[in-house]
Amino acid sequence: PLFVLMKTGVSLGVMTLLQLLKQMKKIFSFFQYKDKEEVVLWMNTVGPYHNRQETYKYFSLPFCAGSKKTISHYHETLGEALQGVELEFSGLDIKFKDEVMQTTYCEIDLDKAKRDAFVYAIKNHYWYQMYIDDLPIWGIVGEADENGEDHYLWTYKKLEIGFNGNRIVDVNLTSEGKVRLIPNTRIGMSYSVKWKRSDVKFEDRFDKYLDPSFFQHRIHWFSIFNSFMMVIFLVGLVSMILMRTLRKDYARYSKEEEMDDMDRDLGDEYGWKQVHGDVFRPSSHPLIFSSLIGSGCQIFSVSLIVIIVAMVEDLYTERGSMLSTAIFVYAATSPVNGYFGGSLYAKQGGRRWIKQMFIGAFMIPAMVCGTAFFINFIAIYYHASRAIPFGTMVAVCCICFFVILPLNLVGTILGRNLSGQPNFPCRVNAVPRPIPEKKWFMEPAVIVCLGGILPFGSIFIEMYVLHLHVFLDYRCGCGFPGLRSCSYVSCFFLWCFRMYGLFQTSFYFGYMAVFSTALGIMCGAVGYMGTSAFVRKIYTNVKID
Ligand SMILES: *[C@@H]1O[C@H](CO)[C@@H](O)[C@H](O)[C@H]1NC(C)=O
């Protein structure tokens, strides 16, 4: 009967999931336009062409915005927020397939201060970036003449938008209308929009940006290579030290065994052998511990699969598709969580396995949903349009209860039955051995911080260069890079992104906290798995009396 129940549960789960995925695909696909539907031109940043890391808000230069103030849909995705993209509405009135002749949308009253700002920007070759329907557009602010005395501002943005069916697939911007900057004049800013039928497929619309000459790939290949070498070097170093020490220890232990019982100094063991009665002692909170390890294993498999899928399929092209893939993979890998969490809990002698299963299954979803709920709350307070739709929330809850939980149950039962025996190579003493006084740098808190430095060092450059989300590097030893990435993220936020306001702040910090915690749990689990295999190995090879 249990088997039948499981089978029904799984098939029910898969069916629900398919339904929900279809639903989600609908919710996530914003990209189709009806004729005359509003198309929003977002202004992003402005900054010197030769230093692309240095960016300012577009409206930090005294540009003026169009007269349109309201927009029907605000879009911001997690990816954008993580990138620190801070979009502001341009105020231009653009409608799908609706041609606009050259129209003046606003005028700049050029006083001395404004002129100086523009001249400074032109001298430093400032360029700006905009977005239309997620497609980036770049334009130059202005131009100086040969002897560098007169400065001109480009005032006319000529937009040519290519569409294929009811989607936007291509955008070109031409800057025209050079106007000399003379103090105390008025400068009219204008735009025009032309719509062209295009053969570019929607899936391929980002391809023109992936042209290697377009982005300079050199830096991040170098840094990836760099951290790769660093990881190899560290692994080599650590394993060499461990091997030498172990060989020496084994030699000494076996020499001792050959000695007479009389000669041997009984009870005076040394080195790692002396803790053999304690190494396999269950943790003090087996329930939480095994749930964390199970979740960590699941996150690890999810990141692996999503990275592979993202490499095989171009997930970056469609907004939200990465997220929905991640949710799907997360639900599908629930048995991994149940298996590792359940078997570890059984090994540690835990009895309340149902409670463990619930905690393990809902730890991560609760964390993510809790944060999302909190941010949603603020979103509703600030811009109602940014809130997560109710349908999505219900969908996520359904996935938790009807897919994740049953699959987790399957995993837990398998884990408890297949590898739930505490088959440790040596017995655990009844009385714990007292832990001697430690130096300050051996305290857990200090170790946690120090342990994160190396893995953090190797992901630092990627995080900086690749803006946190394309090539995320999940490589780590053990320890808590999560904590590190958390503090890094804070610095990053404060120094690089220049985001202001409660909403931006909580949005960014909330999701980055989730990200850092997940990274920490994952690395902790990988570290624990590695260490426990190692410890088990070295104690199997030594004779304990
Ligand atoms: C944009 O420019 C490219 C290259 O000049 C051209 O192939 C493409 O058709 C243009 N697209 C639109 C919509 O005008």
Automatic annotation (TrEMBL):
It is a multi-pass membrane protein. One of its GO terms (cellular component) is membrane. This is Transmembrane 9 superfamily member. GO terms for biological process: protein localization to membrane. PANTHER family: TRANSMEMBRANE 9 SUPERFAMILY MEMBER 3, TRANSMEMBRANE 9 SUPERFAMILY PROTEIN. It comes from the Eukaryota. The gene is tm9sf3. The chain crosses the membrane at residues 219-242, 287-311, 323-346, 358-382, 388-410, 445-465, 508-529. Belongs to the nonaspanin (TM9SF) (TC 9.A.2) family. It is found in: Membrane. Keywords: Membrane, Signal, Transmembrane, Transmembrane helix. InterPro entries: EMP70.
